[in-house]
Design a protein that fits this description.
elongated; 4 helices; mainly alpha
Length: about 90
Amino acid sequence: MEKTLIIIGIIVLLNLVTLSLYGIDKKKAQKSSWRISEKVLLTWSLFCPWGGYAGMKLFHHKTNKKKFTITVPVFIVLHIVLCGILIYLY
């Protein structure tokens, strides 16, 4: 049980980092400043899609880019399937 709580804590923390990256990039876009690359945002979203999706919705960021509106939800589905498989196996 303790290991499970640690893993959940790490997952939540990483999703908060992903959410923060979307917020930072949105602020930088508004200021026409140096930006976080789409590759970095999508990579973080691959591993932490809940934070990426929340960042898109909360900051209204990358919501007009099909690359994001398609791949981030696909990443969420993949995570749900993976969690289902892990729960089934263990």
